[in-house]
Every structure is written in C-alpha cells, then in structure tokens.
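Need tokens for this chain, all 363 residues.
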Amino acid sequence: MAKIWLEINLQLTVVGVTGSYGKTTAVTAIASVLSGKYSVNKTDINLDTVFNLPVTILKTKIWNEVLVLEYGIDHLGEMDRHLSLVKPKIAVLTGITPVHTDKDLLRSLSNVVSEKSKLIEAVPPLGLAVLNYDDEEVRKVGLKLKGRKVFYGLSEKADVWADKIILSLLRTSFQLHDGEEKILINSGLLGYQAVYACLVAYIVGKEQKVDIGTIVQKLAQLKPLEGRFSVGPGPQQTVLINDAKRSNPASVIAGLKSLSQFSGRKIAVLGEMGELGESSVSMHQQIGKEAASCQIDMLVGVGSLAKYTVEAAQNFGLKKAFFAKDINSAADFLKKNLQKGDLIYLKASLHKHLERIIPLLLQ
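Here are the structure tokens for all 363 residues:
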C-alpha cells in the first residue's frame, strides 16, 4: 500500500537518513529547515525499523512536497527491504559504530558498514550524499563514492565545517564554514551532536534552495527531543541532562565531551550500551578511559557491563568512579551524594531503561 501511495505522490522529494547515531535529531533538524519553504512529512520517532517507512509514507498527504525518512536497521537485509520501497534523492550517513553487532543482528562492524552504505549507493546521479567526515568509517565510504557528495564535520578538511563552538545548557552556537562563506548558527539543540545535526540540515536545506536566512531561523527554533540531551530540573535542586533514549560508543563520548564544557559539578550516570556483540567489554572500557580524560567530577556506572567502564575510569585516574549493580542501587547512592547545583548526565541504551532512575531520585 505504501509503495502504491508513493507512485501516486510523484511530487515528493525523498531525503533519507541512516547511521548508528544521530539519525533522529538529524531528521528533526532537516524537516524543520525544509519546512521553511516546503510542506514536509517526516518519520515518527516512536516507530520501529520494520514499520517506520511504510507507516510514515502512508501518513503522507498529497500536498506534501518533501518526505524525510529515517532508515533505521538492526538486521541483515532490512536496508534492501527499505530501498525496495523507496530510494532517496538525498541521503545522509551520520556515523558508524559497532552497535547491533550481536550474532542475531548485524553480527559485525563490517556488516554495519555494508548495510548502511547501501543507502548512499542508492542515490541517483543527480542526487546528493551527505557524509560525516569526522567519522572514520563514514569517511571511507564517502571517499569511495563517485557521485555528488558533501562532507560535514568539525574538521577543516570537510566541505562544510564548524568552529568557535560554544555549548551551554540553553543553546549551542558555532560558526559554520561553507567555502568562503561564514554563518553564525545559534540553535536550541544542545551538545556537540547538535552541531552535526545543524550542519546536515544546512546542507540539505541549501541543496533544496531554502534561503540561508530561513535556515538560520529554523535552526534557532529547534529544541531537544525528550531523552536526547534534554535539560530539566533534577532532584535536590540539581540539573538533569537526560540523554538516556539511545546509547552507543560514539554518542556517549560526544555526550561526555559536551558535559565537560558546562560549569558546575558534573556527575555522569552511565548505564550499559547494548547490542555491541564481541566488542561489548572493550567498548565499555573505552568509555571509562574517555570519562577519565573529560573534566567530569564523578562517574556512576549502572549494570554489569558498566563495571568495566568504572574500572577503566579508575585505572586512568578518575578517583570518584563508582559501580552500582542496578538502578535502585544507583539512586540510593546518588541521593546520599548529590549537592545543590550538580549537573546529572544520564546515558544508556533504551532497553536498559535508565530513565527509571528519575522518579526514584525524586522520591
């Protein structure tokens, strides 16, 4: 039914977004920017990988001009199924990490790369591929691509890049470079991932002939999605940064680096990262090492795999690193150690339900 509906709606320009992290925020930012000129429909953030595309397509109206789709996958063959339904004119690859590499999912990092790359390879000759230059695996994919492409990132080697980044708990600002052009961006999205989402939205907006002033305005109006680096009042007069909707090595590192830029006593509460396959232990250890290198004051690891994170953080010099076997233990520990004005950063994979710690802390 969705395929038939697409054949009727020939007016649609399809933008596809895939990657191991940053997809949903990128989709939101792209749709916001394009809405400054077009009638836009986009993926519902609450849909799973199987029904995401067909349900979104069937919600498309005949007056919509742009369709922004999140091509999420966690099994072999899913991208082929998605592409048999709809191929994008513009495709975005946000990043690649070993997420979903359990033996019953994508099995290996090479399979993740192969499956994600299919979206980029499906772009028509007159289309455009948008690629994260800072991600090594994405950069490799992009350099092999012969079609039209734009790299984005924080590196000056990217086609569109950002510097002079200022992070706060209210806004994110930076200077965007596009050739000789320099544009000041102020966005309501928060953290380093906000910068990447804004760069992607700018590139897609420019490709679709959206006025630069409109792009800047739409990026300024964006707000964090709940559970994706969203900020609110915490228990005991603290500040809660809820980033517990999704978690993988790249997004945790970005979150910790973002947290380190804020003033105040910083407490990172990190749950387990799921579906990392054979890399599970080493990836959790890597996060511990990164936590020790960031300017955070305390780390609380929650869940059995987080024990490796805590141990690595301690080995690399973070003295205040503590292990909690479950959410209840973590909540009890935090209640005894929180101070007024603390910043509490929550991060874990969705199925670990670290967000349940919030009501426990408020009791």
